[in-house]
Amino acid sequence: MTGKKVLVVDDDAKTVELVKLYLNRDGYRVITAGDGNEALRLARENSPDLIVLDLMLPGISGLEICRILRDESDVPIIILTALTTDDDRLKGLDLGADDYVTKPFSPRELAARVRAVLRRLPGERGPEKIQHGGLIVDFLKHEAFLEGKPLNLTPIEFKLLGALVKEPGRVFSRAQIIDKALGHDFNGFDRTIDVHILKLRRKLEPDPHHPRYLKTVYGAGYKLLENTGET
Amino acid sequence: MTGKKVLVVDDDAKTVELVKLYLNRDGYRVITAGDGNEALRLARENSPDLIVLDLMLPGISGLEICRILRDESDVPIIILTALTTDDDRLKGLDLGADDYVTKPFSPRELAARVRAVLRRLPGERGPEKIQHGGLIVDFLKHEAFLEGKPLNLTPIEFKLLGALVKEPGRVFSRAQIIDKALGHDFNGFDRTIDVHILKLRRKLEPDPHHPRYLKTVYGAGYKLLENTGET
DNA sequence: TCTTTGTTTTAACAATATCTTAACATTTAT
DNA sequence: ATAAATGTTAAGATATTGTTAAAACAAAGA
Asked: What mean pLDDT value characterizes chain B?
């Protein structure tokens, strides 16, 4: 399931269930929290892709949570609030919320906003093309070349090579590779990386058994050689 | 400071401050106006690189200002509006606005749109006609041709092809296609794009099962091939 | 207004492509 | 030599995309 993870925070169980129902229907994975502390804990443990946050919470206030979360990550936040004065709205947006919905709300509308925010945010940054020796990785075109010849990479192979080529010479542990290339929501086995490396080598090494680009560092991980020249 | 100059026009001081805060954070120099006359004056005196313009203004209306500014220069304009009927939105874009954001809005999103508009700035207003290999897309006449033969495209198909042909070779995710071709108020499913792609292929590919123009990039999205040549 | 017509969206299923895992083989360091 | 780490293989599990048809929607004309 490709579904993004959404954390829904509200002290009213009925509201939570309703929202969950609609978001599930849209293919999102939903985790829920009923108070501020739980919300913070779940946010930290699960690194959701988006948070729907009620402002009126027992314990820590929603605004406070919003502020804390904003400090810790860039996760998009949609505020749920019964308060309707401009003041409160702006306070929320000022704290970095991405949208807000006032109670009483239509779950359909909330679902639409969730979709909209998730669609918009994955934004820019990072170079769009890297050349390293005879290797070219073009992120915009989603193509990679070696000595002018196109490499036919699968999504993961592409991401993996992309991560390595951003810091040639640096050794990446399997865990780091998973982090940089596959994202936090990957939950698989370390050694899966080995297989992807193997496949990559087959595609870009002249002699896969004696890698010239993609070196193994025994006990540490893998690296892309910085000096692209000969042995 | 290399920062581009942005003029923000809104009668609500809080909104102005909020926007200013976010734009400053992005390294832009921000000047502000609270009504239409001031906006026109500042625009003429400071020739900003971009204008964020609220439609609801005391004095001259935002639409009127948009029209006047458009007559006087090519400065990009992003419209801020609480109006949500299609009519008003289209009126704005008709007058030459480059993008619009509906209130209530997320300052983060606005900032992102400012970046987006300024990024494609040197590329001005976009050509009114693009030829790419045997493909011609005429935005003025709203017509497209392949090898001289007219393609009978529906509105969405036309927009979709138009978005792709502006950057041949570049891969667009479904979300990006939605943003570029359908507008950010589209509230539909990602996979709707697949169907439009399918229909497009049927109209412009000699053999839709082996696309020569409209390629799928597994796990990433779709692209228009840059080299339009033979097999 | 009510049809009619064409378009867009969605849901379901089929066809592919890719990923993960587990098992076993090989290499490396000590 | 042996234990630990990495290489390799291949099959089952997952994910992604292609395709179809019907429902929802919108535009245009009677």
From this structure: 85
